[in-house]
Request: fold
Amino acid sequence: MKTALSLLAGLGAIALGATGAAAQDSPLSVDVTDTSAEDMTIAVPVMPTPAVANTVAGTTEALGRQVAEVVAGDLSRSGLFKPVGPGGVRAVSFPEVTAPAFDHWSGTGAAALVQGFVRANSDGQLTVGCYLYDVALKSELTRQGYVVAPRDWRRAAHKCADAIYARLSGESPFFDSRIAYIAESGPKNRRIKRLAIMDSDGANHRFLTNGQSTVLTPRFSPDYKQIVYLSYIENRPRIYIYDIGTGRQRVVTESANQTFAPRFSPDGRWILYSMAVGGNTDIYRISASGGQPQRLTNTPGIDVGGSYSPDGSKIVFESDRSGKQQLYVMDADGSNQRRISFGGGSYATPEWSPRGDLIAFTKIAGNFRVGVMTPDGSGERLLTNSWQDEAPTWSPNGRVIQFFRTSQGRSGGSSVWQVDLTGVNERRIPTPLEGSDPTWGPLLP
Reply:
């Protein structure tokens, strides 16, 4: 039997994000676009520790349970799997991590098994091992190892869930990522709106601004180091960039004119935004370091909400130049503008998928609903059906969309939700206050 200790030697030098050895092929897989597929049952027992040790994040024994809970939670939120555990399933010993009791797990109905361990290293770091097994074939599908500071144990758990998702779906993952959004509190006529950030599952929540000025429409930079947003101070709109590492903010541009929806270009060099001048609203771009803005649209009407294609060559935006809000695509220099939406109702807040294959939008036809279409305007599908869903933002793998939902009524609040491309798996993301305008960043480096 290959012992856990020999496996630890292979995992011990692996830093967070590095991959372990590939495993043999297996028929276990899921189709992320199949709305009729049944959830795959995955057993996720508590991850044991070779020796109980105290860390600043708790004992390795307690962390073994918490890591398993985060992995099971992530897999459940994907909508593709039915994780069972860690509560209520058989405990696993440390040597058993690399020698699963397949006969037991086959009797539980589990198709796959996730086992792992948490070990305290002599240098104060943690090693978190993660293994995925095919129960029917009694084979290992993949293994990963992560060496992290104890405070980063949740990132190791998200990485483990990412490895399982990628191996079973064949898709790139999205769990080890962050969400920025607007945290809202107070009465409707004196709303406090603060910039906040959290993990993709709502954990590790923190406020980035103090609420002294209203903050709107945040978006991450491509390298995840910054957030661009709009803020009003003394009723004057300013576009700020917030440095996540230092907490410092700087003004990119300010104007006495109404300004909207700043967005980074894919290379991080430009900020796209809309500005109303002389009763006409057009789309502009400005260097991320500031300077003179360049106008990209120049037609009567309101042009708002630009979003770059992943290769930076095109921009999708909304415009009422036809008499009603519709979606248009143009080249990155403002040329070749053409309408792509022609359905009933209006369209707003378009966001280009990081895969480049779809554009998400808000459809306004009575209710507000979130939908997708291809960049040429074909294949329109609506994914949600509530009273007011709006402002979609894509997961890093382009398979899940977050948005915010406002409940009906004078006291109706707003909350952050997500739905996958099947439109079937819809979930609320927990936030300590009401939440709006989420933006999903790329996978953490």
